[in-house]
């Protein structure tokens, strides 16, 4: 069994070391091959390790950083002033091969800019993309990208997102992923130039299992394994789904939480319904991957709790094992060859 | 009390006269000032009127059409071959002032193209927009546009959508509508050029109560009264929300429908929950308005049942009473004057 080392930016997110350190410790117990380098304010991190009663362990090390990138910093500013920050040092550990992947709950824009600057793009990739696994009606996952790494895209980028998403989904599925383009109508004639041009490229690429357009209401209904769209659309669509799910959850919780006889019966009979329904929230899987880089970078929600962050670390472990960046490179090369003929 | 006459395309949608005729009759009993001209295959419509036991009534008249526009027809084809179709005749009744509004459950693309061709755009409007009222957490409505009348937009169009949406929402609200632009982040720096340029125009227009950017998860949470975005984003976001809501409803229905003791108790205690939760589905209000035209056109869902279509007819009645196209014109003129100074 090969060791897998991840660099964890301990300072990002809403809770800092009080969540990141327990998550690191929990991940170590879950993944026997894992080593974690926790990057951040050393005294604070060591205090949290002590509090957990977790003694010296060669699998858990701490690298000190003096500064953090705040959530309100612009990516361009963060890029120029990243030295000595926990996020930058965690990425540098990947760049220098001391770690196999980086995980951060910090400023998304800064993480994307810094990742691109430190790790560089894979050959043939013009822009990185943020991808996440969404739940679906049937219990299957659906990968959607781009979720906001870019505020706009051209057809070539959209096509590259499809190739990357397909290569990633392949590492999770037994079958060839069904790839669809998100559009405003399933008919050939509908949509803007961007999706039409991308559709043309997809249909000329036999190695991608392109199934055509899908509409927004089909995303969570297991119609496709990979859904491709530009970052503006992906981000707004995902957040709108999360907002809708939250509305329903709140309503259900209010019903089950009522201090009435009905509420009491409801809690006895249906306390599991909330959990069942929660699994339908697009927000449930924490850990979005930044694809297209020469290294593995996982973005966790800023508001992630311990178990959510452990899930994001697990995604990093999975991608290291499967060597996702290499798989993307290989797939891209094959596609480019196809397109030359 | 002034009479209000609406022309109802009886042939569009999934069910034709079996839904449109009962909806017309129901609307007549709800709105005493209403007259309905039902346009479509006369023998079939008259048969349905007879079946309902609804005798001769000067408030309900039938105009015969030989043909219908199918749901699969391209808008450009429909435009060239619209003569003698129910949709075209219903729109012509508005154009010739024989009706105050047109309602159709038919082909959306064809309805948009034909409406623009027959009724023309209001002065100062470059593109029409499809707007609908969405439910929100607090029970208030939120108007969102464009929902797909255009597959793309420029900043000037987006700005016009904001003016039109604000003028429409004003006719429903007691306060000045809060207008927001949908974006991928609330910070000033985020988003694409389109939303940034539109935001600049909005902030220079005092007569619009512009409150800034909102993100997708806030749409249904009563943060803004009017949400502006391009038609591609609006359509995918709305449908994704509907898809998420449907997923939850299905889960809940399965639980309440189970033929077990738990299911039996659940039905007794929570049969009203389904209805309560249904009110959160963005799909609940039928009747999207096509704004920016010199006439009132309401698009109903193709799958609308009788009560949903009655809701769409009610929206038409409301817009006629409030003279929405005039209100939009006035508001636009005021805004253009503001921008000259």
From TrEMBL, chains A, B:
Q: Where in the cell is it found?
A: Cytoplasm
Q: Which UniProt keywords apply?
A: Acyltransferase, Cytoplasm, Lipid biosynthesis, Lipid metabolism, Phospholipid biosynthesis, Phospholipid metabolism, Transferase
Broad enzyme group: transferase
Provide the catalytic activity annotation.
Answer: a fatty acyl-[ACP] + phosphate = an acyl phosphate + holo-[ACP]
Q: Specify where it is mainly localized.
A: cytoplasm
Report which superkingdom the organism of origin falls in: Bacteria
Q: In which pathway does this enzyme or protein participate? A: Lipid metabolism; phospholipid metabolism
Q: Which Pfam families match?
A: FA_synthesis
MF GO annotations: phosphate:acyl-[acyl carrier protein] acyltransferase activity
Q: What is its EC number?
A: 2.3.1.274
For this protein, the record's HAMAP family field holds: PlsX (MF_00019)
Function description: Catalyzes the reversible formation of acyl-phosphate (acyl-PO(4)) from acyl-[acyl-carrier-protein] (acyl-ACP). This enzyme utilizes acyl-ACP as fatty acyl donor, but not acyl-CoA.
UniProt lists the family membership as follows: Belongs to the PlsX family.
Q: How does it assemble?
A: Homodimer. Probably interacts with PlsY.
What is this protein called in UniProt?
Phosphate acyltransferase
Annotated organism of origin: Vibrio hippocampi
Q: Encoded by which gene? A: plsX
């Amino acid at each position: 069994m090969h060791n897998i080392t991840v660099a964890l930016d301990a300072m990002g997110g809403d809770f800092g070391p009080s969540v990141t350190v327990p998550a690191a410790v929990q991940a170590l117990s879950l993944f026997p091959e894992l080593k974690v380098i926790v990057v951040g304010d050393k005294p604070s991190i060591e205090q949290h390790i002590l509090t957990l009663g977790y003694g010296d362990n060669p699998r858990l090390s701490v690298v000190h950083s003096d500064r953090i990138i705040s959530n309100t910093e612009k990516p361009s500013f963060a890029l120029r002033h990243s030295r000595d920050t926990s996020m930058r040092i965690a990425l540098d550990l990947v760049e220098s091969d001391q770690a196999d992947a980086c995980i951060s709950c910090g400023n998304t824009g800064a993480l994307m800019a810094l990742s691109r600057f430190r790790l560089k793009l894979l050959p043939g990739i013009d822009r990185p993309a943020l991808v996440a696994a969404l739940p679906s009606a049937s219990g299957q996952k659906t990968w959607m990208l781009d979720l906001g790494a870019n505020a706009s895209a051209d057809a070539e980028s959209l096509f590259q997102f499809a190739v990357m998403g397909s290569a990633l989904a392949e590492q999770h599925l037994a079958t060839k992923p069904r790839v669809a383009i998100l559009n405003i109508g399933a008919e050939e004639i509908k949509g803007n130039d961007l999706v039409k041009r991308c559709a043309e490229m997809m249909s000329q690429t036999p190695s991608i299992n392109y199934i055509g357009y899908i509409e927004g209401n089909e995303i969570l209904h297991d119609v496709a394994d990979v859904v491709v769209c530009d970052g503006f659309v992906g981000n707004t669509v995902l957040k709108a789904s999360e907002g809708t799910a939250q509305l329903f959850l709140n309503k259900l919780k209010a019903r089950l939480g009522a201090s009435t006889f009905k509420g009491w019966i409801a809690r006895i009979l249906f306390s599991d319904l909330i959990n069942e329904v929660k699994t339908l929230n697009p927000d449930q899987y924490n850990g979005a991957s930044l694809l297209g880089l020469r290294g593995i970078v996982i973005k966790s929600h800023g508001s992630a709790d311990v178990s959510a962050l452990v899930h994001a670390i697990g995604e990093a472990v999975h991608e290291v094992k499967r060597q996702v960046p290499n798989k993307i490179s290989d797939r891209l090369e094959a596609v480019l060859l196809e397109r030359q003929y």
